[in-house]
Design a protein that fits this description.
With 124 residues, the protein is of the alpha+beta class. The chain contains three helices and six strands. Strands 1, 2, 3, 4, 5 and 6 form a six-stranded antiparallel beta sheet that branches. A hairpin with a 5-residue loop joins strand 1 and strand 2. The mean pLDDT is 87.
């Protein structure tokens, strides 16, 4: 499955999956627009997963409990998340990459968000 997506997760547990292939200026612009803060930090949650967020809480966003649940499942050190969090992939050279749709679904499951499964098209 193609690694061409980022998961945008808001404090109210709403989310969207956006097209995202990597670290091009256009892709990074997508992250900055979604988080809408002049101070964005990126944190590696694993060798293959990163989260982008307003780490300084400049925009005064609400506590993002779904993002905290993902963090707790990946890293043992507690960390509070405020406002919108955006999840992307990371490759072996520590470059930003996209996620697969399966990766996005797994993250939503960790956050406790039920996502209906879309059936694959039937072939005859």
């Amino acid at each position: 499955m193609s690694e061409a997506f980022a998961l945008v997760l808001r404090p109210d547990a709403s989310f969207k999956v956006v097209e995202f292939s990597g670290d091009s200026p256009a892709d990074l612009g997508t992250i900055y627009r979604e988080i809408d803060s002049p101070s964005i930090a990126v944190m590696d949650l694993s060798p293959k997963l990163s989260v982008w967020l307003d780490d300084d809480r400049i925009t005064g966003g609400a506590l993002n409990r779904p993002a905290i649940a993902i963090h707790a499942a990946t890293i043992f050190v507690p960390h509070d998340y405020y406002g919108t969090a955006v999840y992307t992939g990371t490759d072996a050279e520590n470059r930003t990459t996209g996620l697969t749709l399966d990766n996005c679904a797994a993250l939503l499951e960790l956050a406790g968000i039920d996502v209906p499964m879309v059936p694959h098209p039937r072939t005859s």
